[in-house]
Task: structure prediction
Amino acid sequence: MIREFIGDSYAPHGYCLLWDPWLVWTMAVSDGVIALAYFSIPIALVTFVRRRRDVAFGGIFWLFALFITACGLTHVAALWNLWNGAYAFEAAIKAVTACVSLLTAIILWPLLPKAIALPSPTRLREANMALRAEIVEREKTEAALVQARKMEAMGQLTGGIAHDFNNLLQVVSGSLDLIQARTGGDERIQHLCGAAISAVERGRRLTSQLLSFSRIQRIELRPTRIDEILAGLKELLTRTIEPAIVLDFDIDDAPDAVLADPVQLELALLNLAINARDAMPDGGKLTITLRRQRLEGREDVEDGDYVGISVTDTGVGMTAEVLARAFEPFFTTKPVGRGSGLGLSMVFGMARQSGGTVTIESLPGKGSEVTIFLRTAKGALAVKASPRQAAPADVTTIVGLKILVVDDEPIVREVVAEMLADLGCTVLTAENGERALVMIEQENPTALLLDFAMPGMNGAEVARAALARNPDLRIVFATGFAQSDAIDAVLGDRAIVLRKPFSPSTLAQALRSAIAA
Result:
């Protein structure tokens, strides 16, 4: 049967070609080359599929390999039949090839939409570029987050340092005030005490800046003498700005006062000056100017009279893209670790909280001008330094009051108690919140002079528990470190916060305000 299947039952194909050598050998060589090529293609496909098992449509590759192998066999049969008449053998091979090709076609057509949906090399490149850009943006965001956490940790650290330093300043200033009050006839001692108190005031200003940096101190809007702020800023910048940068202050048109928090305003101007310095690595000119201006028709502020405080540099300037994002928190063009991206956002927040606004004008290579617009303080001059000794009217109001002083620092309690005793008050002391609550029930004090940062219960928790026991109790927070939100949650607008270090005058005024509330 096999002999008949591949034998000479029929005339060979060469007979049909009249055994023309050219035709016979052309057909033979062509069929042989095609067959070899067909047999090599399945080997390549199978090798590819076996090594790349992650490639989609692997099954169709196997069918293609079988189909092409069958096609190669048809050419082998055609080559055999040039000299033999095994047409049954050739027909069988073609039948197998037909079945495989039909099966391949049936499976291939439903896969065509999926194959068309596969991304092209161009789309893959675009997706890869988008992925890289996303990775870069993610890395920037992570770096900004790390920087923000560092800033938060630094803020907590500076807040703690400010608390301890304010306690020390309170002891020093309180002792000096007591010495000054008890040695009124000795001019030399009075002079030395005054000099020491001036140094304490400079220390208090420094701790106020630290508390502003820690971002836990509430903004206190009041009429502020801008000329005094700029005078102190000029002294600071003169010592810190590089000699290659020329400082110019044009502040002759300074108003009597603007409505702002003096510490926050000073910190904002310092931020702008530092940004201007960084924009001039090779030196330049930094100019701070004041001008009165009436703003009308703006959506961000009410119509009225304002003072524009401009900080101008001759540095590298900003592109339109950078300018559009300048006020975004954590956005910075400085390398990671050199800029937090919070400077301009803090300046903008301070201005908006003060009822003003901020504008920026800048061109690449031409420098930048940042202007803070603040409302003028109408009908009220900025409060100048008040006498440290209590006014008779304040003393008359609080004399005889029973005051409970709560502070975890023994030396602070002792000095504050002496100050209150000199003001004519009956003084009780407690070292923590738990002891204070017991004494409130036993002694029924009129007012509570309360520190905020203490071990165990903090000041806000003590105040809440104390008011639950005695709703008529008057509370004054005397602290160098206070979380404004925690205090507001207990007392709201009635909260009276006395910042350490305080003088007998401010102590008497705070107690008088608490009693009158």
The chain is about 55% helix and 15% strand. The first strand starts at residue 222 and ends at 224. The mean pLDDT is 82.
